Amino acid sequence: MRFSVQSVGMSLQETVLMQLRDRILSGEFEPGQRLAEQQLAEQLGASRTPVRAALGTLEQEGLVEANEAGKYLVRRFTPREVADAIAVRGHLEGMAARLVAEHGLPRQLQLDLQACLEEGDAVLAAKKPDYDSYAGYAAMNDRFHGLILQACGNRALQRAVALNNSLPFAPPSAMLPMQSALPQDWDWMRYAHRQHHMLFDALQRGEGARAQALAMEHTEVAQMNMRLALERRAETERVLPAMRLVVGR
């Protein structure tokens, strides 16, 4: 799925970030490939400023690295590395959810989480997913996860999550299924948001063990999205050489 940056109404930086992250996961940008600001800006119909900002975020996420000349190169990562990072996030966020449930849900946190749920419900009511929808859901998703982590009160845990989020595709919204417009992807997002609702219910009821289990289970959606993305990538890599042979005849 590809959309011009100019065709959507969200932040240019956020749009550029989503598309660059998408292309790295799909294999369109190969490990070691240099990502030039000007070239990317022309491809995406954006200025260099949002591209530069997006590349900085990708560096923080461990998807690109700067060489000695300050040029950004796509970082090499393995499926196992991504899966391990997501699994660690599940355990850390599970602990955070349990702490919040056991401490009791403050009124303001309850209102903020409810607002996230309502926003996610509205996004998922859209009939046709596009980058606007994905961006809206991603912003809500990051806020929902961040609120729980902030409320847990454990600074060591918060630092551990921040460190883990610097690994490839480890952050909560990094593995949203944006590689295609398949209904299957939208269904996975609906399922993930139902888990948000169940987690909120556990937090309200003070059910620490249940909240922890739900938060850990929630990361399985990210694991599934990664597996689906890698399957599509492998299929593309298998089909493209055959297509080139046919075209070259």
UniProtKB/TrEMBL annotation:
Keywords: DNA-binding, Transcription, Transcription regulation. SUPFAM superfamilies: GntR ligand-binding domain-like, Winged helix' DNA-binding domain. The keyword Magnesium does not apply. One of its GO terms (molecular function) is DNA-binding transcription factor activity. InterPro entries: GntR_C, TF_FadR/GntR_C, Tscrpt_reg_HTH_GntR, WH-like_DNA-bd_sf, WH_DNA-bd_sf. Residues 10-77 form the HTH gntR-type domain. It holds the Pfam family GntR. Gene3D superfamilies: GntR ligand-binding domain-like, Winged helix-like DNA-binding domain superfamily/Winged helix DNA-binding domain. Transmembrane segments: none annotated. It comes from the Bacteria. PANTHER family: HTH-TYPE TRANSCRIPTIONAL REGULATOR LGOR-RELATED, TRANSCRIPTIONAL REGULATOR, GNTR FAMILY. This is Transcriptional regulator, GntR family-like protein. It comes from Ramlibacter tataouinensis (strain ATCC BAA-407 / DSM 14655 / LMG 21543 / TTB310).
